[in-house]
């Protein structure tokens, strides 16, 4: 005879067995390539129209296939440094400013953000004021720093909240 206790154990066991395969999220099979930035595209962090401003832009492909666009590399890292962003990230892209124009970066110049070389503490303004200039090679980054007369090289993993806060403080100092 099936007692209440046995019934609960059986139902609980069946339920647990059914849930065993639901432990992780399925990753959607999507193509993760940079998309063209077109007039009307807005930065997901600040809401500015991306094409109306100079400097390197950025994009993120999320695990669910969504493409997020950013008006600046600084805003990219504002997003990336949020704890809830990391699990969403599939791939990030930035412009290689060694092969494209600062005022109107080309959609053909996107590179993997993790392999880019970043220059901070330079005088050239981006969409949000001081920004991280991005390059596909250290040689191009050093040439940019020599041309500008200043700058500091960083790798992707070196960019943290302190770097972004320093950019914001530099912007405040320049506007005073």
Automatic annotation (TrEMBL):
Which InterPro entries does this chain map to? N2O_reductase_NosL
Protein name, please? Nitrous oxide reductase accessory protein NosL
Task: Tell me what organism the protein belongs to.
Answer: Halomonas mongoliensis
